[in-house]
Amino acid sequence: ALHPKEIREVRVVAVAEDNYGRYWIRAGWKGVKADINEIQDIVDAFKTNYNIYQGCVDPNQGVLADLLGFELASGGSTGGRPTETRISLTNGLLDNRMLFFDTRGPLVREVWSSMRMLGREANARGELVYSRPLGDDLAQAVMYAIELLRGGGIYESPTLELGSTRMHYQRIPEDTGAI
Question: CB within 8 A of 127, min separation 6: which ones?
Answer without folding.
Answer: none
